[in-house]
């Protein structure tokens, strides 16, 4: 039995999802009864239904009862139902759900009654770029608002600089600050994570069992890096020449590998879209090649960029200027080539390559250095909620950033199921739209602001030069400055490496809405 059993008291324990084959071992551990709290079909076909579990339980000499509890949380009636079962079922009992959290919460409800719900006017899920900026923008508009930020992390990162760290152009220590230092004055930080939504009751349920009530909710937890979807990757990250600028602790390792390499094969990967900062995978390649060129070793290094998609960049305007750098560095492009497996000690990577007819072939490639960008998805708590769209991202109106069925719920940042680029620059404009529209909603007014899909991708094509790509929905160019955006510029490098980090910490996270068409003093 793989699931860890957590003892609540002498007569009651909880566990995550069990399988029929686990039940003989459950009986062997001394349990007399099993309660299933996970609704059938919640996890899809791979989840055994309660009837199959009941047959296996009876065959193992266990009492079995089905008391399903939705992910939105237990009700008073379900708490009373468990209380009745506790009185009649033989002990000790083992209750299970997907993770065990619902079962534990239900037991608390059955034995202690319902805890007091903590009420806020606005609850913000997530303390990343979008969450902190949204809180700051709201409190700039109304300092009396009762705002709670739900965020489990103790540290806050400026992630756009990790590519620069991997290219030897930025100090990793400057990308990190304590979370407490960026929480806006007047906001209440709740150091926990959201485990479920109950939008019908205007509640979020936290990982510690607490319920938070809200008048408005802003959902901005970012996205989830799915390292585990690439076989063997997690076991070799940070060693054997396998690295990624998508992790704070690995970006310095990227630079160490780049500096040390004098010859060999280097592979860069890019998974299927959407991902955060879609230009970052190739920016890692450009900065590495620029260093090797300046060191005079580029001709001794074979560079290949493997993209799961069919194009170098999603906005056609920027493909030609980027191709000039690809050709200048002598890099090979492998389109429709998706990284699926890594053997770090064996210095081998496998890619699923799709041809023009849709046929997939697995191709093995050797490497000395492998820069990996993992597949990315919305967090589990979003994907399994009723607030998600069909692709699992948070469903919003692409203009107002409101949920179509729950207008009191907004979203910002990478979790949004919108077609814009997932960048900090996009979040910077989104939070202003959310703040303005949320405040209008509180006054009974129509949402006055519309998001145009703005995103920015400063493409570091060499150390000291950047192509500043700014665009919105449909690939429409939205340049901030009246200059040709396809030309690499030193001024854009200065913007990327110096001004934007300063503005992030001292402007965006402080509610200063410069260059958003809605600047506040």
Q: In what range is the share of β-strand residues? A: 15-25%
CATH class of the largest domain: Alpha Beta
CATH topology of the largest domain: FAD/NAD(P)-binding domain
Taking all residues together, what is the mean pLDDT?
Answer: 93
CATH architectural category of the largest domain: 3-Layer(bba) Sandwich
Subunit arrangement of the protein: single chain
Total strand segments: 26
CATH superfamily of the largest domain: FAD/NAD(P)-binding domain
Low-confidence stretches: none
| Broad shape | globular
Query: What is the number of domains?
Result: 3
Q: Would you tell me the structural class of the helices and strands? A: alpha/beta
Count of DSSP-assigned helices: 14
Protein name: Bifunctional protein tyrosine phosphatase family protein/NAD(P)/FAD-dependent oxidoreductase
InterPro entries: BLH_phosphatase-like (IPR005939), FAD/NAD-bd_sf (IPR036188), FAD/NAD-binding_dom (IPR023753), Prot-tyrosine_phosphatase-like (IPR029021), Rhodanese-like_dom (IPR001763), Sulphide_quinone_reductase (IPR015904)
Domain Rhodanese: 80-141
Q: What do you see in this structure?
A:
With 521 residues, the protein is an alpha/beta fold. It folds into three domains: 6-112, Protein tyrosine phosphatase superfamily (Protein-Tyrosine Phosphatase, Chain A, Alpha-Beta Complex), CATH 3.90.190.10; 120-160 and 167-223 and 378-510, FAD/NAD(P)-binding domain (3-Layer(bba) Sandwich), CATH 3.50.50.60; 227-375, FAD/NAD(P)-binding domain, CATH 3.50.50.60. It contains 14 helices and 26 strands. Strands 6, 7, 10, 11, 12, 13 and 24 form a seven-stranded mixed β-sheet that branches. A hairpin with a 2-residue loop joins strand 1 and strand 2. The longest helix is centred in the last third of the chain and has 19 residues, at 424-442.
């Amino acid at each position: 039995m793989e699931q860890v059993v957590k003892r609540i008291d002498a007569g009651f324990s909880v566990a995550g999802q069990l399988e029929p084959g686990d039940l003989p071992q459950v009986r062997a551990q001394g349990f007399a009864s099993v309660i299933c709290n996970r609704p059938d079909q919640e996890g899809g076909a791979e989840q055994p239904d309660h009837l199959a579990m009941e047959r296996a339980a009876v065959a193992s000499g266990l009492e079995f009862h089905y008391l399903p509890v939705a992910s939105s949380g237990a009700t008073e009636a379900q708490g009373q139902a468990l209380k009745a079962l506790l009185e009649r079922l033989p002990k000790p009992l083992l209750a299970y759900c997907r993770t065990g959290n619902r079962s534990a919460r239900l037991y608390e409800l059955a034995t202690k009654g319902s805890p007091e719900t903590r009420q806020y006017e606005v609850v913000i899920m997530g303390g990343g770029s979008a969450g902190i900026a949204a809180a700051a923008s709201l409190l700039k508009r109304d300092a009396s608002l009762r705002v709670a930020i739900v965020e489990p992390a103790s540290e806050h990162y400026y992630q756009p600089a990790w590519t620069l760290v991997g290219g030897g152009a930025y100090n990793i220590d400057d990308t990190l600050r304590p979370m407490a230092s960026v929480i806006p004055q007047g906001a209440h930080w709740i150091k926990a994570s959201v485990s479920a939504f109950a939008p019908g009751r205007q509640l979020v349920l936290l990982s510690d069992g607490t319920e938070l009530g809200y008048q408005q909710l802003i959902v901005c937890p970012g996205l989830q890096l799915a390292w585990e979807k690439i076989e063997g990757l997690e076991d070799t990250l940070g060693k054997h020449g396998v690295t990624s600028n998508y992790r704070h602790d690995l970006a310095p390792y990227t630079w160490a590998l780049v500096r040390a390499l004098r010859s060999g094969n280097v592979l860069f990967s890019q998974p299927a879209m959407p991902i955060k900062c879609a230009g970052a995978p190739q920016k890692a390649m450009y900065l590495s090649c620029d260093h090797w060129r300046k060191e005079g070793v580029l001709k001794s290094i074979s560079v290949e960029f493997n993209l799961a998609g069919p194009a170098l960049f999603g906005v056609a305007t920027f493909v030609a200027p980027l191709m000039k750098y690809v050709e200048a560095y002598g890099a090979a492009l492998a389109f429709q080539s998706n990284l699926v497996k890594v053997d770090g000690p064996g210095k081998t990577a496998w890619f699923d390559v799709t041809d023009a007819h849709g046929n997939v072939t697995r191709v093995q490639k050797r490497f000395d250095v492998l820069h990996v960008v993992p597949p990315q998805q919305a967090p589990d708590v979003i994907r399994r909620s009723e607030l998600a769209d069909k692709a699992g991202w948070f469903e919003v109106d692409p203009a107002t950033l409101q949920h179509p069925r729950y207008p009191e719920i907004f979203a910002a940042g990478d979790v949004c199921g919108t077609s814009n680029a997932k960048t900090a620059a996009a979040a910077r404009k989104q939070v202003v739209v959310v703040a303005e529209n949320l405040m209008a909603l509180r006054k009974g007014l129509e949402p006055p602001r519309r998001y145009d899909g703005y995103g920015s991708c400063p493409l570091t094509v060499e150390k000291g030069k950047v192509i500043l790509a700014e665009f919105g929905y449909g690939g429409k160019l939205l340049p901030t400055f009246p200059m040709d955006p396809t030309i690499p510029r030193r001024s854009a490098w200065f913007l990327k490496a110096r001004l934007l980090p300063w503005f992030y910490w001292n402007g965006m996270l402080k509610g200063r809405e410069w260059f958003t068409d809605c600047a506040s003093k």
